Amino acid sequence: MNVRSLDVEVALRAALAAVVPLAILLSIGRPEWTPYAAFGGMTAIFGRGEAYRGRLRTVTVATVGLVASVALGIAAAVAARGSGGGAVGVGSAASAEASAATAITALMLVVVLVGGVLAVNVARLAPPTPLFFVFAVLVCAAVPTPTAEVGVRLGIAIGSAAFAWALSLSGRLLRRVGSARFKPLRPPAPVRWSAVRDPAVWTVIALHVVGALLAGGIALASGLGHPYWAVVSVCAVIPPAGAAHSLSRAWHRVLGTAVGVGVTALILWPDPAAWVLVIVVAVAQFGAEVLIGRHYGAALVFVTPLALVVAHLAQPVAVGGLLVDRLVETALGCAVGILAVLAGRAIDARRGARAGR
C-alpha cells in the first residue's frame, strides 16, 4: 500500500472514531459530554502504518493512556468543585478556592506529562508525543463535573476508546484475505525499557513540565479563557527524545492555527445546527490525518476547527472570544515552546561536550 492510500486508510478510521460517538451523544441530547467521546476516539490516530502485531500493543497503550488522562481530568474537575472551584466566593476565600483548583489541575498535569513521556518512549508510540494525553486531562479538568456523572462520563471515554481500538485493528482480516494487494506495513519497534533510565528522556520530561507550567501560569495570570491551549502548544513544539531541536514546528503551528481560526470563524459564526458541526468534525479529522505526515502547518488548518468545534459543542461560548483565545494562547505556548527548544539545544550541546571529554 502506498503512502497516499495508507494516509486515507488512517484518516477514515480516525474520522469514524470521532464522528460515531459524537453522533450518538447528539442523538440523546448530551453534547456537553463531547470531550470524553472525542478523547477516547483519539485512540484511532495511534499506530499509523504499523504492522498489526505491533499496532495491538500501540493502540492498547494509547487506550490506557487516554482513558487514564480523562479519568485524572474528571478527578481534578470533581476535586475543584468540592473545594469550591468555580463557585462564587468573596475576597480571599474565593482566591484560595481558585488556587486550590489550579493546584489540583497542575498536579494532574505533571502526573500525565511524566507518565505520558515515559509511555511514549518505552512503548515506542507513534505519534511520539504526550500531547493528546495532556489535552485530555486539561480539557476534562476544565469541564464542570457533578459527582453523580463521573461514572457515565468516564464510561463514554472507555466506550469511545474501545470502539476506536477495534477500528484500528479492523484492517487485519482484510489484509489477510487480500494480502497480495497490499504492501507490507512497518515492522513494530521493540519495547524500550531502558528509556526509563535515559537522560535524554528525562530532559524531555523536564522541558515539558517546566514549559507547560510556565505557559499555563502566564495564560491564567493574563485572564485568558482557555489556558490549556497554551499548554498543549508547548507540548506540540517540544520534539521527542533524540529528535533534532527544530524551531520550524512552532512557526508552522502559529501560521496553521491563524488560518484555521479564520476557517473556524466561517463555520461557527453562522451558528449552524449541531449535526452540521459533527460533519465538520469528521471532515476536519480526515483532513488532519491525511496531511499530518506531509506538512504540519497545513494539518493545523484542519486541527484548529476540529478542536474549536469540539470545545464549542461541549461548552458553547461567544465565538469571537473563543477564536481570540485560541490564537493568542497558541502564540503564547509556541513562544514558551521555543524557549524550551533552545534550552534543549543547550543541554544537548553540554551533554555532547561532556561525552567528548
TrEMBL record:
**Residue intervals of the Integral membrane bound transporter domain:** 214-339
Q: How does this chain sit within the bilayer?
A: Multi-pass membrane protein
Which residue ranges run through the membrane?
Answer: 12-29, 59-80, 100-123, 130-148, 154-174, 200-221, 299-324, 330-347
Instruction: Provide GO CC annotations from the record.
Output: membrane
Keyword Transmembrane helix part of the UniProt annotation:
yes
Q: Which UniProt keywords apply?
A: Membrane, Transmembrane, Transmembrane helix
From the Swiss-Prot or TrEMBL record, state where the protein is found.
Answer: Membrane
Q: What is this protein called?
A: FUSC family protein
